[in-house]
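Hypothesis: this fold can be encoded by more than one sequence.
Test: take the C-alpha cells below, design a sequence, compare later.
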C-alpha cells in the first residue's frame, strides 16, 4: 500500500475529481443529450464521454505513471505493467440518466496491485457522496459507515438479478430485483446498511465493482465472486465472475446458500 501521505493525496485528488464529474453530469442531465448504442447493445450518451474526458484530464496528467481503465476508453493493456491504476465508470446507470431519473452515479477507484485503496461513488441528483480509503473506513457525506450484520438470511433484503435471487428463494430472503439500480449503488447501499446484501450471477465489469468493493470492505463487509474469492483487478480480462456482497456473517451465509441451490 502507498504511504499514508501519498495515499491521502491520491484519495483527495480522486474525491475532488469525482465530485466535479458529478456536477458536470448533473448539469447535463437537465439537457437533451445525444445517445446511441454500443456494439454490445448497451447505451451511451455524450454525457458519458464528457464526464470521462473531465476525469481523464484531471487524473491522468496528475499521475502520469498510473494506469487507466474506463468503460468509455478503449482498453490499453499497457496498464497490466503498472502497479497503480485508476478504474472509472463515468456514469453507472446510463439508462436511468437517459430517462432523467436520479438512480445513476459517477464511480471511480484507485487500484494498487489488484486491490482498491481509494474509492468514490457520487449520486449527484440527490447529493450522496460515498468515499473510502483502505484502512481508514468508508463514509457517506462524512458520516462513518458500518454494516449491520447477521448470519440469518430469513427476512434479509437482498438485491440482485433474477437468476441469483432464484437460487436464494428457499432461504427466506426478501428478494429485490435490481432493475435499473446500477451495481455501484447496490454496493454503496450495502455499505450504508440500506439493503442487507447484493448478489448477481454472470460476468460483471471491473468498473461496475471496484469503487463499491472498497466501500463495502471498509464498512466491515465482504465482496467476492460467487465462489467466495475476492476480486483481483487489473487483469487482462476486465471483468469478474458474479457478485456476493454483504456483512461478513451474512456474506458467508449467502455463499453457502448459493452453493447449495
Amino acid at each position: 500500500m502507498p504511504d499514508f501521505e501519498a495515499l491521502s493525496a491520491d484519495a483527495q485528488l480522486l474525491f475532488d475529481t469525482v465530485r466535479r464529474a458529478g456536477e458536470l453530469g448533473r448539469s447535463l442531465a437537465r439537457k437533451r443529450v445525444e445517445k446511441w448504442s454500443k456494439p454490445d447493445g448497451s447505451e451511451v450518451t455524450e454525457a458519458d464521454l464528457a464526464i470521462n474526458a473531465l476525469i481523464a484530464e484531471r487524473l491522468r496528467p496528475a499521475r502520469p505513471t498510473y494506469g487507466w481503465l474506463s468503460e468509455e476508453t478503449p482498453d490499453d493493456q499497457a496498464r497490466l505493467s503498472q502497479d497503480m491504476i485508476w478504474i472509472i465508470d463515468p456514469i453507472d446507470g446510463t439508462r436511468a440518466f437517459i430517462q432523467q431519473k436520479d438512480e445513476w452515479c459517477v464511480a471511480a477507484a484507485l487500484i494498487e496491485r489488484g486491490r482498491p485503496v481509494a474509492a468514490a461513488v457520487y449520486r449527484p441528483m440527490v447529493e450522496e457522496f460515498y468515499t473510502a480509503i483502505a484502512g481508514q473506513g468508508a463514509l457517506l457525506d462524512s458520516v462513518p459507515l458500518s454494516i449491520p450484520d447477521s448470519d440469518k438470511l430469513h427476512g434479509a433484503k437482498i438485491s440482485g438479478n433474477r437468476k441469483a435471487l432464484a437460487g436464494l428463494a428457499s432461504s427466506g430472503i426478501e428478494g429485490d430485483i435490481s432493475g435499473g439500480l446500477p451495481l455501484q449503488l447496490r454496493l454503496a447501499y450495502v455499505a450504508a446498511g440500506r439493503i442487507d446484501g447484493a448478489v448477481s450471477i454472470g460476468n460483471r465489469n471491473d468498473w461496475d465493482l471496484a469503487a463499491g468493493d472498497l466501500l463495502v470492505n471498509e464498512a466491515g463487509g465482504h465482496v467476492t465472486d460467487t465462489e467466495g474469492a475476492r476480486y483481483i483487478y487489473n487483469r487482462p480480462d476486465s471483468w469478474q465472475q458474479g457478485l456476493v456482497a454483504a456483512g461478513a456473517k451474512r456474506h458467508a451465509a449467502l455463499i453457502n446458500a448459493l452453493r447449495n441451490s
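The chain has a mean pLDDT of 95. The domain at 4-144 is CATH 3.30.540.10 (Fructose-1,6-Bisphosphatase; Chain A, domain 1).
Hypothesis status: open.
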